[in-house]
Amino acid sequence: MRFRSVFEIPAANLVYRSLIPEMEDRITDRSSVDMKVEGSSLFLEVRSDDLIAMRSTLNTWLRLIQVASETADCLE
Question: Which domain holds residue 58?
Answer without folding.
Answer: 3-68
